[in-house]
Amino acid sequence: MRINEQHFRTIWQQGDRVCLIDQTQLPFELVTVEVTSLVQMCHAIRSMKVRGAPLIGVAAAYGMALALQENASDGSLQGAMQQLVATRPTAVNLAWAVQHMRQQLLALPIAKRVETAWQMANMLADEDVSQNLAIGQQGKVLIAGKAAANPQQTVHILTHCNAGWLATVDGGTALASVYAAHDAGLDIHVWVDETRPRNQGASLTAWELAQHGVPHTVITDNAGGHLMQQGQIDMVIVGADRVTRNGDVCNKIGTYLKALAAYDNRIPFYAAVPTPTIDWQLVHGAAIEIEMRDADEVAYMQGQGSDGKLQKVRVIPHESRALNPAFDVTPARLVTGIITERGIFPPEQLQQAYTAFEPKS
Ligand SMILES: CSC[C@@H](O)[C@@H](O)C(=O)COP(=O)(O)O
């Protein structure tokens, strides 16, 4: 990603520590922090300094390396995995990454584990970047198709939450297609759902689109259906925290409502996901554990005060309770296609398409 013309990743190894962009400070300040222990990494994931399914997978992998640096025993490995998995339950990438690490590392002598853990975490980070680049090339074709159908008109894309650079190591998933299309000179515009309660759209997606020079407009979460009825949205592209075997898409709360509105208005709805976001163990989205976050995220909003400092303001009565489910499931029947690094598949063909990639035994 380019920030003020400088190249950045969201997370990287620096010697025996990990550096990451603290997303809770964006869009007003670009702050990088150093993480030196498993406890600090768990806190960074839970408090959403790092967030987004692919990024928390890689962050957890680095968390394993930090844990082993403190203690490389089998017990420490097992304990680190349990602590990391408990930070955020919905995105499958996190559990996938730590299980992958655990399996390989347990088989090694203790003396080899730390070095290998860093190598594996760096490799997962690099794989994320290359998968996202490939997703972008796949999605660009869809946008180019829309542009070719109406050459004089801008292609309007709606996205929800943040599935851009910031949700990954670099490149983004849903926004990878947007960046690829923009870089290819296609005339596009992005409608950015603000994405209450944590406003990942308003704070993060808008910020990174602005950094890249992509035309965009922030809208309230409730505006999308109206814009669809007005013919102002050509396609919806979102990311996902988990896609189940049948093609159900679990993503940020509110995605389901956008998919329903898109379906009613015959607007294509796509989810862009790298392979580690597909959970082959689960057949249906109903089995996914939906993270319940602190009700204070609904009761308060964070923004910049007139003094330039971050402030929290309460927006609901002191007497009222709030509920904060962080994700929802969009059933496969509302999904036009899953954009992956291997191709774009209708949900019902996802499993079959992937089986075709695996070598026959
Ligand atoms: C490429 S990211 C896909 C999803 O992880 C993203 O859309 C999302 O829902 C992020 O949720 P968050 O709670 O901000 O981690």
From TrEMBL:
Task: Identify the metabolic or biological route this protein is part of.
Answer: Amino-acid biosynthesis; L-methionine biosynthesis via salvage pathway; L-methionine from S-methyl-5-thio-alpha-D-ribose 1-phosphate: step 1/6
TM spans (from-to): none
Report the EC code(s) recorded for this entry. 5.3.1.23
> Which purpose does this protein serve, as stated in its record?
Catalyzes the interconversion of methylthioribose-1-phosphate (MTR-1-P) into methylthioribulose-1-phosphate (MTRu-1-P). Also catalyzes the interconversion of 5-deoxyribose 1-phosphate and 5-deoxyribulose 1-phosphate. Part of a bifunctional DHAP-shunt salvage pathway for SAM by-products.
Give me the reactions it catalyses: 5-(methylsulfanyl)-alpha-D-ribose 1-phosphate = 5-(methylsulfanyl)-D-ribulose 1-phosphate; 5-deoxy-alpha-D-ribose 1-phosphate = 5-deoxy-D-ribulose 1-phosphate
User: What domain of life?
Assistant: Bacteria
The family database entries (InterPro entries) matched by this protein are listed as: IF-2B-related, IF-M1Pi, IF_2B-like_C, Initiation_fac_2B_a/b/d, M1Pi_N, NagB/RpiA_transferase-like
The identity of this protein, by name, is Methylthioribose-1-phosphate isomerase
To which species is this protein native? Methylophilus rhizosphaerae
Q: Could you tell me the Gene Ontology terms of the biological process aspect for this record?
A: L-methionine salvage from methylthioadenosine
Is the keyword Amino-acid biosynthesis assigned to this protein?
A: yes
Site described as Transition state stabilizer, located at: 161
Its gene name is: mtnA
**A single GO molecular function, which one?**
S-methyl-5-thioribose-1-phosphate isomerase activity
Recorded family membership: Belongs to the EIF-2B alpha/beta/delta subunits family. MtnA subfamily.
Q: Where is the active site?
A: 241 (proton donor)
Q: Does the keyword Amino-acid biosynthesis apply?
A: yes
Q: Which UniProt keywords apply?
A: Amino-acid biosynthesis, Isomerase, Methionine biosynthesis
Tell me any Pfam family this protein matches: IF-2B
Cite the binding residues for substrate: 51-53, 88, 200, 251-252
